[in-house]
Amino acid sequence: MPRRCYIPGCKSNYDSSLKDSNNNNKCETTFSFPKCPQRLARWLNAIPRKEWTPSKSSVVCAKHFSESDVIRFHEFKTPSGEIKKVSLAYPKLCESATPRKFPNLPNYLSSDPPRTRADPEKRRENFLQCGKKVLEDFLSEDVINNFEDLLKNFKNKIPLHNWDIKACSDKLLFYGLNFDIHNGCSVIRTLMIASDLTVRVYIKNNELYEKQLNWILNLDHKLERWSQLENLISHYNTVEDFEVEVTVVDMISRGLAVISKAYTQSETNDGFLYGTQLEIIIDQLTQIVSNKRRYKPSTIIMAFILYCQSPSCYDIVRDFFILPHKRYLQSISGSLAVSPKDEHHNKNYFASIIKTLSVRELVVTLIIDEICVTSRLDYRAQTVVGYAENDSSNKDEFAKTIVAFMVCSAFGNLNEIVKLWPVNNVKGNELASMTKEVINFVQECGCEVVPVVTDNHRINRTMFKTISGNGQTFPNPKDTKKNIFLLYDLYIFLKIYGKTG
Hints:
The chain folds into four domains: 15-109, no CATH class; 147-236, Ubiquitin Conjugating Enzyme, CATH 3.10.110; 250-335, no CATH class; 343-500, no CATH class. α6 (248-266) runs antiparallel to α7, α8 (297-309) packs across α9 and α12 (428-444) packs across α13. The chain has a six-stranded mixed β-sheet with strand order 14-13-10-15-17-16. Strands 5-6-7-8-9 form a five-stranded antiparallel β-sheet, with no helix packed on it. With 501 residues, it is an alpha+beta fold. It has helices at 15-18, 37-46, 120-142, 147-157, 226-235, 248-266, 275-289, 297-309, 311-318, 326-335, 343-354, 428-444, 458-467, 490-500; strands spanning 30-32, 59-61, 70-77, 83-93, 164-167, 171-180, 184-194, 199-203, 206-207, 363-372, 378-380, 383-385, 401-409, 415-423, 448-453, 473-475, 483-487. It comes from Callosobruchus maculatus (Southern cowpea weevil). It holds the Pfam family TNP-like_RNaseH_N. Keywords: DNA-binding, Metal-binding, Zinc, Zinc-finger.
């Protein structure tokens, strides 16, 4: 049996109302009186029924509440983000709900529900969302899609006071004319937009530089929005306030742009032989107009070669050209992972040097000599150097001399150090073993060692006797039919070659 409404004059859920055909035998939703004393007092004060206390079975139907007070659906968000509604089997009332509508009683007893004040955070969020929506709509409508869009809509989008227009298939020009009785007509301002939407501005026949348009355009100086065009039109509407000052740096920048285009074109022209030189010139001009020193690879390579040839000469050249500081070049060389101990890289380097030599030029002399050095440790190429590497020296003992192995072409200009060996009190047998290793290294690269030349030091004599029983010759490790001569002085070697030649 449905619960009957206790509001005076209301017949909801009574037998007579349920039998009414207009009601379709539908029961009205009812709500019990609240247990909260404050809410109960509000309900009793609003219901026009004096000296009456509700019982546990007393109810009020939904007709006496505003529809906004009745909660009939439950909202929830799915994992996909979609918000769904589900009907409640038993509708509920919101916390502020109070019966205020009494249709079967005089109108003055009913009242409209008070307007609820929205939560400040929610109002702020709604305001931000509204502003965001307005901004998104403006930005989407402000975009210039392409040059065709510009030609089609610029008259409707931009106010063009004091501007004349010339539309072409590949560009759009806005210009202003000045009429003078004595000098005739002249163009005092021009705004030219190319088909790729790049913008160029001319004031009194002087083109504005790119940096003078950075206040409104991006670095590529392409028109992207109608608001940019409107600002440009408004900004350059009068030219009295725009005096174009052409500085030396501006003139260099313009010339640099022309040379850069020439360099780009030269990259596709195989007949142009001065691409590297042109790149260095462009880099020099760039250093003049730039606030930061960022060098091109060609400039760094040239500077590094000059510095390696002569640091003093490099200092003089830096007085005339803008080149990297010596410390920068030193930092580059210090980061290179090269070392005299790296046999693989040394072999690749030496093989690349001799690959263009003729068979006659590959006949070489191996010269051995000692270099006295200061006993100390250094950090070079990410490695600590300075220790002696011969077996007869004590552990962690500093090197006092470096044995240098150098090859010289007998019939060419090849002169190259192939091995540097830091030692301390080296023995003759150790030097003999290292000499054989160097001979094998040189001949594996493609050269042929004919003589080994050194000075008449006691250790060198011991080394010769260790290698050869007679101290004069020994079989070539690569071809035992040939001999390698052991000589003490270079002029003797020259005499031998003179006689055999």
